[in-house]
Amino acid sequence: MNPSPASPRRVFLTFCQTLFFVFMWIAADFCARRSGIRIPGAVLGLGFVLVLLFAGVLKPGHLELGAKFLLAEMILFFMPAFVAAMTYFSLFASQGLRLLAAVGLGTMLVMAGTVLIVDKVFRWESKRSPQANE
After folding, report:
1. How far apart are CA 99 and CA 37, in angstroms?
2. How is residue 58 annotated by DSSP?
3. Contact (Cβ atoms closer than 8 angstroms) between residue 90 and residue 48
4. What are residue 115's phi and psi, to 5 degrees?
5. Contact, 63 vs 23, CB < 8 A?
6. Buried b / exposed e along 50-80 (16+ C-beta atoms within 10 A)
7. pTM of this prediction exceeds 0.70
8. Is 24 within 8 Å of 48 (Cβ atoms)?
9. How far apart are CA 125 and CA 105, in angstroms?
10. What are the structural domain ranges in the chain?
């Protein structure tokens, strides 16, 4: 049974789940800095969360509200980049085409990688799922 959209329980669960993601990010960033791994803490933290999900320690429902909240507020994560773009407008004016090409190529590579990984996971899950064999 899902709590109603504005219930105090739902707000509390969303807060706790979002806090879990923040904690994972901070812990992974700490581990990356201490070990000298050159992977950003946020990426490493999401990797840890993925391992916990695949291992069955966490269920997707345990993180659903926090993940949905973070995705809904994603525009806030891009505000610092927009401010930086306005601050360094002269850099964009002189190197804009190169930057645009680098960002465009990087975005396409990330999207292609995501598609491949999601496709592999769906195929893997469909092979594991008992309903797929019926």
Report:
1. 27
2. S
3. no
4. -60, -45
5. no
6. eeeeeeeeeeeebbebbbebbeeeeeeeeee
7. no
8. yes
9. 30
10. 1-73, 78-134
Q: Write down the pLDDT at residue 37.
A: 87
- Segment-wise mean pLDDT, segments of 10 residues, the chain, 134 residues: 74 94 92 90 89 91 91 80 78 84 91 92 84 55
Hey, what are 56's tokens? Answer: 């069955």
Closest to 13 in 3D by CA, of 53, 64, 59, 73: 64
- AA identity, residue 26: I
pLDDT of residue 130: 67
CA-based Rg of the chain, rounded to a whole angstrom?
19
Please give the C-alpha separations between residue 53 and each of 15, 63, 109, 110, in angstroms, as whole numbers.
20, 10, 25, 22
- The token duo for 131 is 């309903």
Structure tokens at 120: 């592999």
- Could you identify the residue written with the tokens 């933290």? 45
